Amino acid sequence: MHIPTLLSALLWCTSLLPAFVKAGEGGSFVLINGTPYTWQLAAIDSYQMNAWSFPSLISPGGMEKVYVEWDQSIFDDAYDDGGWVIYGLAGTSNQFQLQATATGNTYNTSFTLQVYFNGISTANNPQGSLLNLGWVHDGNTVFILSGTAGNYHSINPPSNWMQNSLPTIGNRILRHLTIPGSHDAGMSFINGSTFFGSEDHVLTQTLSIGGQLARGSRYFDLRPTISSGIFKSGHYTNLSVVGYQGANGQSFSSIIDDVNAFTANNAELIILNLSHDLNSDNYSSLKQSDWNNLFVQLFALHHLFVAPNPTTVDLSKLALRQFIGNGQAAVIVIVQPPSDPSVTLGLWQTQGFYNATTQFAVYDNYSNSNDLSYMSKNQLNLLEEHRLNYNSQEFLLSWTLTQQAIDFTQKDAPSIIDYGNIANNALFTLLPPTIKSTLNIVFPNIIYIDNFNRSDVTALAIAINDMVNINDPAPSSTSSTSAPSPTSTEIVSEWGQCGGAGWDGPTTCATGSICIPLDEYYSQCQPP
């Protein structure tokens, strides 16, 4: 009388057997061919991998998303899982090997994908080197190879990737280049906040400006806020009922130190974009005197770039070589229209500070959505609409997901960093197919993300530069100009330093202002 029950139990157990036999972590291996050569599969093998099948050919400019699954069956030792595949580059002697490896023991196994540069060298990856690419369960692990024979680029680009790329892209104007950028770049930690300014809702980055620079970011969204009289990065929202809510992040003095430390060893172009100014001590806009004090502080940046005709130049029409072709870094400060419309750059416009509207106009329109499908379609549609050709206005691809009201009411709602990881994971599969490298060339100028903690975004930007076929003529001038150090014979600009302990610069203020001691070490020209 118990036989049917026993048979049912056996059948039920049998139905679960495939899951125990085949179950394993799965994810995608995203391969991006930024070279002009077809990748040809030369050999492939695996052991105990549930999924390890690769396309025989990957065309130039192509992207392939390969599903990979490990074997974590109770009948097998997962730490024995492994696989490899070799691709050769058609028409060359170059090849590389992609590998899947597992380490650990029966109770604790970790997985990784890696690349062995067995028959090729790239910038920062010599031939014979082995590079760990990581592993993202249910996500994308990325490998990118771009460039041409003898001048390849890949994952793990050098910290001076712009300088390294000068031979191929040095003559291109900024409108003809792609660079990676950081959204709300100074918000990697909280340095004072309001009641509702929690980490989940204000932090956009996990690395300092220095960390982001090291991973290749070159465009930084900085939002100056005065907090207890100190200039800090800010991330605030003016809510209808409770007013301004948010937090402060990395101080501008720390940001300046990070930039100067980086440019001491890396001759790169760095763009600091200032916007969304706020005095959080009284929740008002920054006044002219506040901006002047900020400019004085930012004047401590080394290698401030003063362009020819600095008050009228369109920076987007200068070639990369004109900024960094002399082997020195170039730092430019872009100022978006301040909240107070009466504020002007004044004489700072001749010292490496530029008007965003007239001197570095960028199309920047975020999607204001927490839905990946909507955001990605919206941004890629905007790219198609506004980058009609490679001479169109600079375009910022705002690849960010924005928290909505529901995210503030649900306990387990994603943080800004969580949303950033979701968006960044999808970038490598959604953006490459939209890049048009010939004829009607379409590509973004700035790839703008939250949580810039990975250098593969930089590798993607480099690959786009390698794929896009633009040959600009050599610029008439190939040297950049740093903001000059003041001499004792000069007249101090309207808001410049005019004295203080150790000061050996000019002490005569411009007509209409006087030298006022602010402390023992610093005196500044100000209206009487």
TrEMBL record:
Coiled coil: none annotated. Residues 490-526 form the CBM1 domain. SUPFAM superfamilies: Cellulose-binding domain, PLC-like phosphodiesterases. Residues 1-23 form the signal peptide. InterPro entries: CBD (IPR000254), CBD_sf (IPR035971), PI-PLC_domain (IPR051057), PLC-like_Pdiesterase_TIM-brl (IPR017946). Keywords: Hydrolase, Signal. GO terms for cellular component: extracellular region. Gene3D superfamilies: Phosphatidylinositol (PI) phosphodiesterase. PROSITE patterns: CBM1_2, PIPLC_X_DOMAIN. GO terms for biological process: carbohydrate metabolic process; lipid metabolic process. It holds the Pfam family CBM_1. GO terms for molecular function: cellulose binding; phosphoric diester hydrolase activity. PANTHER family: PHOSPHATIDYLINOSITOL-SPECIFIC PHOSPHOLIPASE C X DOMAIN-CONTAINING PROTEIN, PTHR13593. This is CBM1 domain-containing protein. It comes from Hermanssonia centrifuga.
